[in-house]
Model the fold of this input.
Amino acid sequence: MHHAPDVDLTERELLTRQVIRMTFELTGRLRAHMDRSAAQLDLTPMQARALFHSGAPVPMRALAEQLHCDASNITGIVDRLEERGLMERVVDPDDRRRRNLVVTEEGRAVTEQLKALLREGNPVLALDDDELAALAGMLERTLQTTDGTPQPTST
Amino acid sequence: MHHAPDVDLTERELLTRQVIRMTFELTGRLRAHMDRSAAQLDLTPMQARALFHSGAPVPMRALAEQLHCDASNITGIVDRLEERGLMERVVDPDDRRRRNLVVTEEGRAVTEQLKALLREGNPVLALDDDELAALAGMLERTLQTTDGTPQPTST
DNA sequence: CACAACAGTTGAGGTTGGCAACCATGTAGG
DNA sequence: CCTACATGGTTGCCAACCTCAACTGTTGTG
Done:
């Protein structure tokens, strides 16, 4: 893209490190916050994430990608959610290999409770309107540029 | 038509939800990115985080708090890091109950490699200088206001 | 010295991550 | 039609991690 002048690079370099450090700190806290919230509803972190990403019926394969984990893990996670009656496997009529995940009525209720808990005490609420809007824009751009699969930099 | 203050609140409310959603999305990607980076160095996610937070000698208790996990987990994590020679338990002479975690020479090298990998493909690099500075400010404020233990808001 | 408090460890039970093998279904070629 | 192959999901295995409770050493206090 655009190579930057060497002198100003240090400035940005320091800032970048700082932002990365804080981003990881924030990430850790958000993760802990989410885990605590999930625990209040007797959900494991992964179960909570699975519910979170299953707004519309979704094949297990897709969920695995969204959760950045192996497909085999989804089996167990969905098993436990299904045992609690929060989710259901529905065979896709178009492709009978596929099992679409459908959140049940109770599952939706639990998901709403979870989202409510997540809003409480969320750090981003400390920002004022302008900052929030700016942050939204940045996040949008940030998420666009990286599609989740950064170049693997193969050795 | 008497109430419905949503007209003013909705704006921020929607924005907040959007930001929260994107924040979690970004969190997930960063986590996946960190896990992949750690895997390239044959480190588990927790081992990587343990190294990351052990710049200066730190008692295991403190590390547990920084990693938001039970103290008993640290035992196993440090065990494996010690087996690889990346860390050492050093008994604190002032308080012989304490074992300070000291990163070895090799451990420091691995940590540097890890940090280098983390910088590669980090989504925040997509931002320009002004945005980066603004983000830094927001993160700082955000991290200040929440000390890691968010108080349950009554709203 | 008896006692509580603290740092760290151990053990049991359960959930997840990663890998390889497997079954069932869909798809392409002969 | 039949084989070969690709795909979605499952199972089994093993290592790592999480949570909780019980336990060993050490420190501080009375």
Remarks:
- Residues 148-155 of chain A have pLDDT under 50 and may be disordered.
